Description:
The complex is a heterodimer of chains A (420) and B (375). Chain A is an alpha+beta fold. Chain A is built from 12 helices and 10 strands. In chain A, the strands form 3 sheets. A 4-stranded mixed sheet of chain A has the order 1-4-5-8. A 4-stranded antiparallel sheet of chain A has the order 2-3-7-6, with no helix packed on it. A two-stranded antiparallel ribbon of chain A has the order 9-10. The mean pLDDT of chain B is 97. At the A-B interface, helix 9 and helix 12 of A face helix 7, strand 10, helix 8, helix 9 and helix 11 of B.
Amino acid sequence: MNFDDTPEEAAFRAEVRAWIDANAPKELHAELATAGFGSGGVKSVDPMAASKAWQKKKAEAGWACLHWPKEYGGRGASPIERVIWGQEEGVYSALSGVFIIGHGMCGPTMMAYASEAQKRRHLPPLASGEEIWCQLFSEPAGGSDLAGLRTKAERAKSEDGGDDWVINGQKIWTSGAQHSDWGLLITRTDPTVPKHKGLTMFFLDMRSPGVEIRPIKQVNGQSGFNEVYFTDVRIPDAQRLGAVGGGWGVSLTTLMNERLSIGSGMSTGFPELFDLCSRIETANGLAVDDPAVRSKLATWACRQSGLKYTGFRAISALSRGETPGPENSIGKLVAGATMQDIAAFALDLQAEAGIINDPEISAANARFQAMLLRSPATRVEGGTDEILRNIIAERVLGLPADIRVDKDVPFNQIPTSGAR
Amino acid sequence: MNFEFSDEQKQLGTEARRFLEAKCPPKAVRAVLEGAQPFDRELWKGLAEMGFLGVAVPEAYGGLGAGYLELCVVAEEMGRVIAPVPFSSSVFLATEFLLVAGSEAQKQAWLPKLCSGEAIGTFALAEGVGAATPRTLKAAVNGGTLTGTKLPVADGDIADFVIVAARSAPGSDERGISLYIVDLHGAGVTREPVATIDPSRSHARLTFQDAPAELLGAAGEGWSILSQVYDRAAILTAFEQVGGSDRALEMARDYALERMAFGRPIGSFQAVKHMLADMYVSATLARSNGYYGAWALSTGAAELPEAAATARVSATQAFQHCSKNNIQVHGGMGFTWAFDCHLYYRRSNLLALNLGPLSQWEDKLISRLRARNAA
């Protein structure tokens, strides 16, 4: 057992470090290091321009989407090299937030299901950040119950006699739709069969006529999520991913990647809290010297460390060319709830002034206030805490699936909220 | 990075599991719990024959000469079956004290016997209710003899010798504490078993009246040695706790699959599934933190104190969490003497206090994190 780099890994790390040192936007370092959680990163410059510039620079030098094959804009790097890159990129990785969905979920799905020509057309600009992708899955009627979605796709002939699909419906919670050039879209193509069997996956140009994007104002005032409306939007059949009726299987590929990418190295807020406790006074002196504070800190330290080393176990498995075990599924569940608890506690330490949400006044640039107002979303997005517990219980522990009363019922006969 | 046990180490774990499942079924734990004998002598003999009592002890002293990773693997299996033997006292404590602080003669005298199972060793710190600190310890050595009372002492009624933390100089400073080896078959020793929350592991009150005591390590270094050995024992105990957590979770899972209510297995209800998922989360965090400890112990890393406290806090919380919810999943049956749930519940709460309470380890963890941040 060791944490040491192999000679090859050490050489790779040195190369990465040297390149980052020579090329990273160092003028943004301080701002990125202290940016409020969920605030979208930098304010001194246009955040999208800064993100795209860094991604482009990385892509040109072969440092974008390291694990993708070279012909699709990646580096063909090993999993361990990808991890090393992440460790070395450090705070600059915050600039990549806008690309996470595309790189982590849409790209791998395209890689698995798109034609060779489509992969060569779409993956390189996705890797380089020139094109941004979003994932159009959740709907008002189907979030946790994703297969309950209703956005309709119907076959039609195009003007030149080709095969088209016409899309009508609505998606919601679409991260980054307002910035996106392309989207991965799951639709219902057959409402007369049970719900998992009538779904079909497509990708589409987000500027297609009939696509309307409305940002959703969130609890924290930001608008990372959107509603996306589809009115008679046309998609060529060539942009279908997988078989007609095979969309559920395709979506599982996407979601598997979602949970892997979201779950790895998630922030709990612990290092920031520990730092705060080492500086802030309570009625009993320095917070970190207060036994009540220490007990809470110890529990959170163990969660932080447990997640870190669970990740290391997964990395070790990847390093050996094995599939990581199911233990990785705990990442988001633990990190989300821990961050929410830590945020509330960090405000408590600031006493009455904990309510103040102003970087000029609040401790730590108001990052704990930002955490408090953002963390509820972490426990919902990408699988709610409850869905994640179901996954652990069913897929890891082997407990029976929930009884699904709608499982074998044709979709158009399933009772819905509005129908009573 | 290679943060995983090797195939050979996993193989050792498989062998240990096979052996322990055969030799240490729940009825063996019950035999000790219900008072037939203070520990399972047959099992102890078997463990010695397998070499498990000296996994990390150099061959020159009669051990296997393997390493601490191997010992961690065996400890986890001991924890899975909550073995009713003095393994932690003799292997994690007595052996480690001798390896860390023993003179060559002391090592030669005791280690081969500990490895062969011929002698059982233990360690005594507490002196009754409340925290044991350099300020509170009253047992004292004067002119080579020990006088005082130690309570509770794990395996104090069955051990052949005990390492005692006692006052060697007046004052409240930790420099006033030294360690001594006391032969429990010698003069001036009285032992009485005490009732505990987990009678499957015996504990005693040891009363010393001018008992001959031999210094272990340098005079005045007792507290510092104790702290080092406790860190090592905390990591090894964490593996016992991880093994126990896993087994308690499995018991709960198996029962949830088999027990029907409202026409379906209770494991199909989300309230039960989510409880089990949370137990899995605790057990997984504890295991990963345990690996961190194992790495630090096996490499002698500078992070050892921090890793030990992390592994200890995490594993204590996980085993308590899994063992209490195992009873909850079993419902009323979980509260019966006949079901095995209470064996794990008892052991989890016993291990939570052996080596000092959770609050002390939480406190150590934060002190150590601070020290690292300051460095």
